[in-house]
Amino acid sequence: MKTNISKGKNNGKDCYVLTVHYDERRRRKFFKTFADANKFDWVAWLGEKKKVEPMGDQTILSIARDKYLLAFQEANTNPEKPRQKGYDTTADRVNKFIRWFGEERPVSEVTVEAWKTYVTGGRSPNGNHWSKKTRHGYGSAARIFLAWCAKQGYGQGKSTWYSSTNKDLEIDQKKSYHKLPGICSVEETKALLDTIHDKYKPTLALMFFTGIRAEMEMTMLRYSDIQWGKRIGLKAERTKTGRERWIVPPENLWEWVPKRGRGLVNPVSFNAFTQARALAAKRAFGWENNGRRGGGGVSGFTYPSNGARHSFGSYGYWRDFEWALDAMGHMSSETFLKNYKNNRVDKDDSEEYFSIVP
Per the confidence metrics, is the pTM higher than 0.85? Predict the structure, then answer.
């Protein structure tokens, strides 16, 4: 680290300039006299700067975190979407790591061994050790943050935090067995559409017969996006993939969607809709008397997670694979076949499914 004092100008006035060469950068401070510049405590000055700005390989974690989350937000925030789940999750996981390691410690002090200790020793709020899936999620968030710090020159090696070049970063995960996606049978789909309140029928039908994503895309869909009898347009800023998508739905859908609707298709919050859908599923096949006074138990079913989208993919595969893939906004046929196709459905089921009308 080198320093020197030289004559210069500041706002057009003669002055003395103290220049500190630090981490391939220079920082300057201006003084009226040589004596003031010579007695200035530049070590303490740099120490204070570390608390508010990046300082090369002495950048502290809290400053690096702030810069990283700002860059992440600028790259990923979509004002059209009601919730920025990606940012919230990333911020939570990075904050958890730096609180554990020490927010005021330099980025350069973080080692792979320390990261491993964090990942293997993590505990949930109830005191249990993290599951392997949780380890992977929190460990990856911290690793990606540190890899970004390396790119910025904050005191890490660029190859240290990439699992492709450093095998010590690999997190063993328990072997998992693939389960078929949960779908609604043709009978359940009919019963659910018949049972749910009228104001929710267009929303539910669109989800069942176009595969539109429930929370992200359906929440923002407006009747003005629907060219009734022809197709449905999803703007790029309102899709998960960031690509504009046009869906040509099956003919039966138009029986469920009003021709001249106004405003949002889903008139309430997403949570209110899911509650109404869950209640309708429980009552889908009516009430049956099981011998108790005043009535009986519910003879419905439990709506599966992502049931409408999975159902569309499973039945849509038999109608036209490429059409279903395009409607759902997927580029990978492998992902579609693995995550959205339930093999217990056949072509006859598909024809019956896409014939469901009020």
Answer: no
